[in-house]
Design a protein that fits this description.
Number of helices: 10
Domain Gfo/Idh/MocA-like oxidoreductase N-terminal: 7-136
Protein name: D-xylose 1-dehydrogenase (NADP(+), D-xylono-1,5-lactone-forming)
CATH topology of the largest domain: Dihydrodipicolinate Reductase, domain 2
EC number: 1.1.1.179
Shape: globular
Pfam families: GFO_IDH_MocA, GFO_IDH_MocA_C3
Oligomer: single chain
Radius of gyration: 21 Å
Bound molecules: NADPH dihydro-nicotinamide-adenine-dinucleotide phosphate, the ligand O=C1OC[C@@H](O)[C@H](O)[C@H]1O
Family: Belongs to the Gfo/Idh/MocA family.
Number of strands: 14
Length: 373
């Protein structure tokens, strides 16, 4: 059977678009994938900056002349050769950009956090339904082979049920020395830790607890959030949040910071503590390459004693953003409007958590930034 060729339009020429395009351009056969092909057909930059789009194509797509450089996003949405739009603009633009793409009848893969709040996401999902298009948040961690292996390991029951999940994602953004207009500092762009980094500790809680079979996708019964703001612009520099899953009898203890180095190498970025063992996931938690599992014994005197340990390594061609792209292609081929792995319900849960954490932490976006409230 001939592979389906999914034709992508790329919205913006920023950092993450560069990474995504590089992964899209890896020949899937070199990754042992033969049912899908990805083709970038158009790249858009705002404000008439067609030269910026051309430069992007030169730099990240080997100057491929078949790719159309566009000086507006609208030109990309209107391109009849484009099947699906990838949105890589700052968070607070995701709603408008996604809506424009949906209204043009395009499928959408939108970067995380999918919107500024839950109300925007609900409106987008209604629009996607009305226009009959596929919509997914680009929660790439959910599709990586390591994540799939951990979900299988938990479901196998070998470790018993998960009881506490700790996860942190931090990055030192050098806040004192970047412009206040940088997307990580600017409140009009949804700056701060929770919206930018928070999706990753949260995805570990969702994969290990929310998705754990006996939780039956029951949302957290309680959410707490605590925020330390930077005086520079008032966005959250550090955020800690917890989620209680009462049905499961489990808790997630999560955090994110914009002014601390990420724990790298051997340091665990996420720890999943189960009744009969521990899984330690190596940082960075958005694309971990290894995890260590420690299994407690069940024999006499072996409770809380490690009887087996194993480290699992994961390596593949590319940065790891292509796994989510493959999922988009397969869903579209099968006429599905959402992914079974990272569907609308999980993005809605994510945005509800962030709304609550920002509310408890006193971080309100400036008036008008949230397009739907
Ligand atoms: N999945 C992942 O691993 C990552 C995801 N992200 C997500 O991707 C999104 C973009 O992040 P990133 O690529 O780092 O950001 P960048 O600042 O590098 O790029 C954003 C691009 O958006 C366009 N843009 C449109 N309007 C604005 C505006 N008002 N201010 C600034 N830029 C604007 C610009 O492109 P142009 O002028 O060409 O239109 C700009 O280059 C964020 O939502 C972030 O959360 C970010 C990093 C990693
Ligand atoms: O998605 C992301 O992952 C890596 C981080 O460094 C980045 O700020 C964030 O947007």
């Amino acid at each position: 059977m001939a592979p389906i060729v999914l034709r992508w339009g790329i919205i913006s020429t920023g950092g993450i678009c560069a990474d995504f395009v590089k992964d899209l351009r890896i020949d899937p056969k070199t990754r042992n994938v033969d049912d899908i092909e990805h083709k970038v057909v158009a790249v858009g930059s705002r404000n008439g900056a067609v030269d910026k789009a051309k430069e992007f194509i030169k730099k990240y797509a080997d100057g491929d002349e078949s790719i159309k450089a566009c000086g507006t996003y609208e030109e990309v949405y209107a391109n009849s050769d484009v099947d699906v739009i990838y949105i890589g603009t700052p968070h607070t633009l995701h709603y408008d950009n996604s809506l424009d793409a949906i209204k043009a009848g395009k499928h959408v893969l939108c970067e995380k956090p999918v919107t500024s709040n839950a109300a925007e996401l609900k409106a987008l999902l209604a629009a996607a339904k009305e226009h009959g298009v596929f919509f997914m948040e680009a929660m790439w961690t959910r599709f990586q082979p390591l994540s799939l292996a951990i979900i299988d390991l938990l479901a196998s029951g070998e470790l018993g049920k998960p009881v506490v999940v700790h996860a942190d994602l931090s990055g030192d953004f050098d806040l004192e020395n970047i412009p206040k207009t940088h997307r990580i500092l600017d409140p009009t762009l949804g700056g701060g830790a929770i919206l930018d980094l928070g999706p990753y500790p949260l995805v570990w809680a969702i994969m290990s607890l929310y998705e754990y079979p006996t939780n039956e996708n029951t949302p957290p019964s309680k959410i707490t959030g605590s925020i330390v703001k930077t005086p520079l612009t008032g966005v959250d520099a550090n955020t800690a949040f917890t989620l209680n899953f009462n049905k499961l009898g489990a808790q997630a203890v999560l955090s994110c910071s914009t002014n601390l180095s990420m724990l790298e190498g051997d340091n665990p970025g996420a720890v999943i503590r189960c009744e009969r063992g521990i899984i330690r996931v190596a940082a960075p938690i958005y694309v971990p390459k290894s995890f260590k599992v420690s299994v407690f014994g069940t024999g006499p005197g072996e409770r809380n004693k490690i009887v087996r340990e194993e480290e699992k390594m994961f390596d593949y061609i590319g940065r790891g953003m292509h796994f989510q792209a493959d999922e988009v292609a397969r869903c579209i081929r099968e006429g599905r409007k959402e992914s079974a792995l990272w569907g609308h319900e999980k993005s809605l849960l994510e945005m509800a958590v962030f709304d609550e954490v920002r509310k408890q932490g006193g971080y309100a976006l400036p008036p008008g930034v949230e397009r739907v409230v």
